[in-house]
Structures are given as structure tokens and as C-alpha cells.
Amino acid sequence: MPETTDGRPAAPLWLPAWTAEEGAQRVRDLFDRTFDGPAPDGVWSAPGRVNVIGEHTDYNAGVCLPTALPHRTYVALRRRDDDVVRIASAQTSEPWRVRLADVAPGAVEGWGSYVAGVAWALREAGHAVGGFDAVVDSCVPFGASLSSSAALECAFAVALDDVFGLGLGGDDAGRTQLVAACIRAENEIAGAATGGLDQSAALLCRAGSALLLDFRPGLAPQEHAVPTPFDLATAGLTLLVIDTRAPHQLVDGQYAARRTSCEQAASILGVPTLRDVTPEGLKDALTALAEHDEDGVLRRRVRHVVTETARAAELAELVRGGLGADGSPDAAVVARAGALMTASHASLRDDYEVTVRETDLSVDTSLAAGAIGARMTGGGFGGSTIALVRADAVEDVAAAVRAAFADAGLAAPAFLQAPPSASAGRDA
Ligand code: GLA
């Protein structure tokens, strides 16, 4: 156990979520300090997410199972009568300004592109969105693969929906249109070629539930996103999130390279997406890829995607059954759920090659300290891991990971509790 200078063991660093009142107060105060004139029209917020399982499946038309974090990004916003956007953030000293007429793919840069991108995408979809003054503050850790970017986009999506009267935020069908706008903002204006997992989680999750997302094209909204009650507390379990503090950056080449390999493999196999390769058809698909794939990269990527969707579907089924045979949690079912999570991590490490030393160490240490299952969550190349832990073992697992990082000479990780929380909405 590492020690502080006064000889006491160093305690794990916990990152609590703000209450809605605290978040709202922070952005109201920041708004007052930043802008002259009337008070904001309101305060809105959107959550970060953890993905329980189903990684790098969204852009392969596969399945994943996120929950919304209690950690949220808050926005105070006032509508303007022109098309000027002025935004400021507690997390950066750089205020940001643009005219919406000047927003286009490749034309804007910086953190504000995620915000202006949402307004741009809503306008592209035919909605009458104009300029606004806004400020942002957040307790979603940044660069931790907990979807701080989607939380930013989605908080603005619900704010703009409200103040410009678009009428989309009230049901899942409308929110699905907001999801689409946020994905376009991220892909086309911010320049990150991500799938739709994060934005769907931030706009469609329910408190107390995981969200079973199926990205097969052509599904109706209620088939695409199915809230699935996920009551870990009654099962005596906790989902522990470990922000390894290993830097994580999606707007770089690695994520896009994974996506391109998947598209290339699908095209060689003559299928629209890798969802069309079934677990039963995997062996034949790998054989067919062999002659185009000297170094085995495409085969490893395909093996991950196909097995990951199968694992995600199986875990979703276990969650739907209450992690038990007869509606009450059952140790064998919980153990199977943990095993699926751990197998997901091995696949991401060995076949998809998106884990790093810190995420591997965090997972291995969590398991050695008694976690029932553990895996990296999100895009990878750093970021966070999650561990399914008995509620009475949470502190021990956190202390073990804290100690292992100190022994390895790594920066101290941070820890979050992640009860499944609510999606984006108006706070005040
Ligand atoms: C990031 C992307 C998502 C998804 C995950 C990996 O979070 O934003 O679209 O691809 O990585 O599952």
C-alpha cells in the first residue's frame, strides 16, 4: 500500500457527481460573470456514459449496452436574435465565437466545434435554430473515455430543442433525431469518425436501466434502443469505474484506422457491414479473408467485432432476466456476466488492439482483488475501465488498483460510482 508523507496509506481518489442544483448554480454564476444582459433562458444537462459491453460494435451495425453516468455536463443558455454563437467554459480559458453561417465541415476548430456542430446539424435537418450565448461546466472527467464530448453535444441539443421550440426532446422518436444531429456534429464538424453509441446513451438512457442498442440499419426507434432495467444494488453489486488517467484521444488516426479495417473486411466479404457475419459464419469469413490479409490484422478485427456483438447480446439477455434464473440474482448468472465482460477485454486487447498498459493493469488488478468481471470501456487507447464488484468489496478493489498504479510508477487513477442514471434534459 503506498503511503503519504505522514505515513498513512494513500486513499483512492473518488470523483463524486454534482447534484443537479450544484451544476445549475455553477453555470448560472458563470453565465452572470461572462455575459451582460438578461439571465439565461434555462439550464440543461446531459450525462457521460459507461459502456457495460459491446465495444467498437456501433459502427459495425452491432449491439452494445451503455448506462448513463450521474456525472453530467451543464449548460446555461440564452437565445439570440441573430446567428452569432458565443460560448465559454469553466474548463477552458478560451471563449469561443462563431457565426452559424460560417459553420461548415472543415471550417471550424476547437472545443466550440462540438457545440456549433449541433446547431449546424439541426439547421441542416431543416430546423430554425439561431444564435445563442451559453456557458458550460462539467463533472464528466475529460479524456477518460466517458463521453464528455457527447455530453457536451447532447446538453446543447436539448437546450436548443427547447429554446427554439423544435419539439423533439419529448419522446424517443424526437430524441433519435437529436442523436442523429449530434452524431453529424461530431463526425462532420468536430472531425471524429465515431459511431452513435455515446450520443444514444446521453439522450435515450433511463435512470435504473441499461440501454440495449442495436445498430442494425432500418430498425424502428423502439427496436434500436431498448431500456433494460439494471438493478445492480438489489443484487448486492456495484459498477466501479476507474479512470486510469492514461491520455485518450479520439480525434487521432487509431480509431479511424480500426473503422477503416472493418469497412475493408466487410467489402472483401461482400457484406454491407460486419453485423452480417454471424458467429456460425465466422470461421468461413476468416478463411475467406486469409488471402487478403498477410499480417492477420483484418481477421483479428473481424473476430473481435463478431464475438463482441454475441457477448453483448448474451449479457443484455442476462440483464433483462435480472441477472438470475427466476427474476432474482443468481451467483452463477452474475459470474457468467462477469466472465463476458472479462472476455470482452481480452478480445479488445488481443484482437482489436486498443488497450494500453494502464487499462490492462487496472483490469488485471481489479480481477485479482475480487472483481467478478472487468474491462476497458469506450474507444480505448487509454481512458477508463469498469469492474463488476460486490458492493462490500468496492473499497478493497479501488485500494488494490490505487496501489498497483503506485507500484508501477503510474499517475494515481480516479474512481467513480456509476449507478445507471437519467438522460439529457432541462434542469432549471
Ligand atoms: C467511442 C465512440 C463510440 C464507440 C466507442 C467504442 O466512444 O465515440 O462511437 O465506437 O468508442 O465502442
From TrEMBL:
GHMP kinase N-terminal domain residues are: 114-204
Q: Which residues form the GHMP kinase C-terminal domain?
A: 336-406
Q: Which keywords does this Swiss-Prot/TrEMBL entry list?
A: ATP-binding, Carbohydrate metabolism, Galactose metabolism, Kinase, Magnesium, Metal-binding, Nucleotide-binding, Transferase
The Galactokinase N-terminal domain sits at 30-79
Q: What's a GO cellular component annotated to this UniProt protein? A: cytosol
- Keyword Glycosyltransferase among record annotations: no
Classification via Pfam families:
GalKase_gal_bdg, GHMP_kinases_C, GHMP_kinases_N
Gene3D superfamilies listed in its UniProt record = 3.30.230.10, GHMP kinase, C-terminal domain (3.30.70.890)
Classification via NCBIfam families: gal_kin (TIGR00131)
Q: Which family does it belong to?
A: Belongs to the GHMP kinase family. GalK subfamily.
The protein's name in its UniProt record: Galactokinase
Name its species. Answer: Xylanimonas oleitrophica
